Amino acid sequence: MRDARAALCDYGRRVVERGYVVGSSGNLSVRDGDLMAVTPTGVQLDRLRPEDCPVVDPAGRVVDGRLAPSSETPMHLALYDTAPDASAIVHTHSVFGAVVATTREVLPAIHYNVLLFGGRDVRVADYATYGTADLARNVRGALAGGRTAALLANHGGVTLGTDLDEAFERTSILEWLCEVYVRACGMGTPRILDDAELADVEARMQG
Ligand SMILES: [Zn+2]
User: Fold this and answer.
1) What is the structure's pLDDT at 177?
2) Which segment of the chain is annotated as a signal peptide (predicted)?
3) How confident is the model over 3-23, as pLDDT tens digits?
4) Which of 13, 53, 54, 76 has the fewest CB atoms within 10 Å, i.e. is most exposed?
5) Which residue of the set 72, 105, 197, 202 is catalytic?
């Protein structure tokens, strides 16, 4: 898990540099076989050292590391459990994602890039207290059908990827879409792409 822990530090710095988290909020993980390396609780993501990142088993028990794993460890484990293709997760409190997650039930298709997440919108998972099995279940529901991004009501966003690079890229695209949507709402009522327009893009992407 040495490479996985180093990657958590690298991408931890990136999410802070982009302003996707403040303080010690947000958490990232990488899965390797049965084990998961995750960012620790209470440490700012741009100050991590590889040895700070605990390694946990599927039950959430720490098998390596001194620090306690992120409070959202149950969510990370639950998402890997139902997404066999995912090997990395990025969870942030990015501003525009949080704005949409506080005011809407979905991020609608204001741009064709929404299709990159495996659906024609991005669902907002129902609110539940952070770190709980209820939140993990709600987020899992919002990702049902093989989706790779969801927003968390009154909280933030989460993306999955085959590695941290992909999960981080998806977080960047999700935040960009949310910013466009929020700014468009400020100008009036955004036009949403219809099913025929989205189907054309899907056909082009598959071709
Ligand atoms: Zn959070």
Assistant:
1) 98
2) none
3) 999 999 999 999 999 999 998
4) 13
5) 72
pTM of the model: 0.97
Closest CA to 190 of 179, 201, 182: 182
Cβ-based neighbour number of residue 21 at 10 Å: 22
Which sign does the torsion angle of CA 39, 43, 47, 52 carry? negative
CA 99 to ligand 1 center in whole angstroms: 14
Q: For the segment 128-155, what is each residue's pLDDT rounded down to a tens digit?
A: 999 999 999 999 999 999 999 999 999 9
- Answer whether 61's CB lies under 8 Å from 74's CB: no
Assigned token pair, 102: 């506080």
Tell me the residue type at 137: R
Count of other CB atoms within 10 angstroms of residue 128: 19
- Cα–ligand 1 centroid distance for 36 (angstroms): 18
In the residue annotation, 202 being an active-site residue is answered as: no
Is 102:109 a contact under the CB 8 Å cutoff?
no
